[in-house]
Write a structure and sequence with these properties.
CATH architecture of the largest domain: 3-Layer(aba) Sandwich
Strand order of the largest sheet: 1-5-4-2-3-6-7
CATH class of the largest domain: Alpha Beta
Number of strands: 24
Strand content: 15-25%
CATH superfamily of the largest domain: Alpha-D-Glucose-1,6-Bisphosphate, subunit A, domain 3
Number of helices: 24
Number of domains: 4
Length: about 750
């Protein structure tokens, strides 16, 4: 029964709330029973939903602290019950939102209508909120827990930033007030800025923690809360679990005390931004630090050949898409400062707008997504015309928080007809209302191609500048995750670099590098929750010259930090940075221009046709392509698909023959670290995937893996084309990529996804 204290003016009274709770209790239980009987909800989810949902709804409704901070949240619950949104209510109140790869991330609004209300009416609007969605209460509870952790560890300062998500600035200012109330010094960005800049500011300012309000590349319904350590790296698995279990999991709303900016001590609040205050912004008489300049100057140190870039920069035609995100100022400013003045910004994608108006509700503004690339190309042509697009050398994109980069390049004319065969829109990825593609002069180059050719360029420049040798070669190494192409491994081995393969996530990559700096010997046996495998990692290895992931992330961490420093010596931030990668790729484009080649021609020549490296072709698809497996039925479907994949793995172990696209599976492996067992109610949940190998050399395989940033699955394929030469390379690339697509299609059927 609800407490009898809800009759304040403007609030539902106790009788109304009692009535809607009775309705919800009855109807949600009927809904769960039906879905369970129909086999759409797994037993463990059904059982927990029956146990948790209604008590959690009542707990929130009875909490006067929540009502004080969010006066209209009860109306949001009431409206959802009246609208019979049982699936959404179960989703919102089944659990507390869990920590993922980079913090917490989840749905902020379920529908386009709710998103518009949030944008127009603010965070106190009457929409559905709960402990398993992103809202001001969840943000404040997490922040109170983080602040208590800071107090326990004697941490005294924090950097807070945000991207272009709806009401990101309001959320950032709100959590700043709780940290001020907890006596921490707050460095607060004055506008939407790249997440990587937060991760630069933390070590630069010698702060203790960083928080960014962002959902990265997720669709417009989402928001999130990324936590960075004092080095600017994402929290390690151990730190994350320690903070959540000891300070966040059982935090009380009684701890949600705020302090207004004007009431805080002057030295406790400092703003971060540019050289001048923004017009119309209130800085409360506090100091403003030009962090943008320091960040840009730091990035420019990583240009390999400044003289070449000076000569060729003006001849490179560059397009840029911010995808409505926070890279909109940083990337163009950096390009211009480096002389890349022939820059065309796509203005329809440049506005800071978390509604992402060029994208449908469940489409992701991900620069590594071919359909986001299609949107960018179409918008570029609308603004500048076909002729200007033909003259482009590259089109760079960054996601809303600018930690990921995408690169659109031109296909050489003699290859366009062949590529037309594979750039057809899949039945899984059609944009509603989209027109058939007619221009096959361009392609989104995946990260599995971008990173190895960028690494090749930087290694060759080192040789060129040092009389044909690479300085400290025996100390240098790279790190990539286990889903990233083996092209990089073969390239590294050819040049004599050490290689570490980790599990997915830049926090894990950074943790691995930190351990190498400390002299630890890494292996899967020693660190099964961190390392997949290593190659050539001798005791001398200490200089990281590349950290990269298939999911469009890149950085360089350098050597161990000097005394008193937190960034590695000659290193960039300890997380991925799309603004940083964009500049390095622009330099690569200038180099190819100077050589009279395209980037694709360079890839063919230096990677695919090199017998020491080989022609590795990769392909992946997300399941589902749009959106996620949401709610109890969605989560059940996701788990069922993985269970089916695991069943296939067990059958293969017992001798059953399985083939996909004519390729026989000869072995399998399951990768699990335990980090997501609880949320999936599955002991031994394969959080790092299930892999199926087609050959003993382990060059050919596919992996199904649950995402750590969203409730979806991804199937990754790697195949190596054999007997490749200059005459048959194009045909081999196309044939192998087609086969990879068939592998995915047949895997989806085998795992009963379709």
């Amino acid at each position: 029964m609800v407490n009898k204290n809800y009759s304040n003016k403007g609030k539902p009274n106790d009788k109304v709330l009692d009535s809607v709770i009775k309705t919800a209790s009855k109807e949600i239980n009927i809904y769960l029973d039906q879905k369970y009987t129909q086999g759409e909800i797994r037993e463990e989810l059904y059982r927990d939903a029956k146990k948790n949902v209604i008590p959690n709804i009542i707990k929130w409704l009875e909490d006067e602290n929540i009502a004080r901070i969010s006066p209209n949240f009860r109306f949001g619950i009431k409206k959802a019950i009246e609208a019979k949104r049982w699936e959404d209510l179960i989703y919102a109140f089944l659990d507390k939102i869990a920590f993922g790869t980079a913090g917490i991330r989840g749905i902020a609004t379920f529908t386009e209508e709710e998103l518009r209300k949030l944008a127009l009416e603010g965070i106190n609007t009457k929409i559905l909120k709960g402990p398993n969605t992103i809202n001001e209460i969840v943000f404040l509870l997490v922040s109170a827990g983080v602040a208590n952790y800071a107090a326990k560890k004697n941490l005294t300062s924090i950097v807070i930033g945000y991207d272009s998500r709806i009401k990101g600035e309001v959320f950032a200012q709100l959590i700043a007030k709780i940290f001020l109330a907890k006596e921490l010094k707050v460095y607060l960005f004055d506008e939407a800025s790249p997440y990587p800049e937060v991760n630069f500011a933390v070590p630069f300012l010698k702060a203790d923690l960083g928080i960014t309000i962002s959902a990265s590349h997720n669709d417009k319904r989402y928001n999130g809360y990324k936590i960075s350590s004092n080095t600017g790296a994402g929290l390690s698995i151990w730190e994350r679990n320690y903070i959540y279990n000891n300070f966040i999991k059982n935090i009380s709303t009684d701890e949600l005390k705020l302090r207004r900016f004007k009431e805080s001590e002057k030295e406790k609040l400092v703003f971060l931004g540019g050289a001048k205050p923004l017009e119309g912004e209130d800085y409360y008489g506090r100091k403003l630090i030009d962090i943008h300049k320091y960040h840009r100057e730091h990035i420019k140190k990583f240009i390999m050949d400044k003289k070449m870039l000076e000569r060729w920069a003006r001849r490179v035609n560059v397009g840029y898409s911010a995808y409505h995100g926070s890279g909109r100022k940083t990337v163009p400013q950096l390009l211009k400062e480096l002389g890349l003045s022939n820059l065309k910004i796509i203005h329809s994608l440049d506005e800071l707008n978390g509604m992402f108006p060029c994208f449908l509700l469940k489409q992701q503004p991900d620069p590594g997504d071919p359909l986001a690339a299609q949107i960018a190309v179409d918008e570029f042509k609308k603004e500048y015309g076909n002729k200007a697009f033909k003259e482009l050398d590259i089109l760079i994109g960054t996601d809303p928080d600018a930690d990921r980069v995408g690169l659109i390049v031109k296909i050489p004319p003699e290859q366009q007809r062949a590529y037309k065969e594979i750039i057809k829109t899949s039945e899984y990825v059609k944009i509603p209302g989209s027109k058939k593609r007619s221009d096959y002069s361009w392609i989104l180059l995946e990260s599995d191609i971008i990173w190895p050719i960028l690494l090749w360029y930087r290694l060759e420049k080192e040789k060129e500048q040092n009389e044909g040798r690479i300085p400290d070669l025996d100390k240098k190494f790279i790190v990539l995750n286990h889903l990233t192409t083996d092209t990089i491994v073969k390239l590294a081995q050819k040049y004599g670099l050490g290689v570490i393969k980790t599990w997915v996530g830049f926090a894990i990559i950074s943790d691995a590098i930190e351990r190498v700096w400390r002299g630890e010997k890494l292996s899967n046996e020693a660190y099964p929750e961190l390392v997949f495998e290593t190659f050539g990692m001798t005791k001398k290895r200490s200089i990281n010259i590349g950290a990269m992931e298939q999911s469009s992330g890149f950085s360089i961490l350098g050597s161990p930090p000097l005394v008193g420093e937190r960034l590695g010596e000659n290193g960039h931030i300890r997380d991925k940075d799309g603004t940083f990668a964009a500049i390095l790729l622009a330099e690569l484009a200038a180099y190819t221009k100077s050589e009279g080649k395209t980037i694709m021609e360079l890839v063919d020549e230096k990677l695919y046709l090199d017998p020491d490296i080989g022609c590795f072709i990769t392909y992946f698809e997300s399941l589902p392509y749009w959106g996620q497996y949401e709610g109890p039925t969605g989560m059940s479907k996701k788990i069922n698909i993985l269970k089916n994949a695991d069943d296939v793995r067990e059958k293969i172990k017992k001798g059953e023959k399985v083939s996909l696209a004519g390729l026989k599976v000869i072995s399998t492996e399951v990768y699990k670290t335990g980090k997501y067992d609880e949320i999936h109610r599955w002991k031994g949940f394969p959080d790092e995937g299930i892999r199926f190998y087609f050959d003993k050399e382990r060059n050919n395989h596919f992996t199904i893996r649950p995402s750590g940033t969203s409730h979806c699955l991804r199937i990754h394929v790697q195949l190596k084309a054999e007997n490749v030469n200059k005459d048959n390379l194009l045909r081999k690339k196309i044939e192998t990529l087609k086969k990879a697509m068939v592998v995915v299609k047949e895997a989806r059927k085998m795992f009963k996804e379709i």
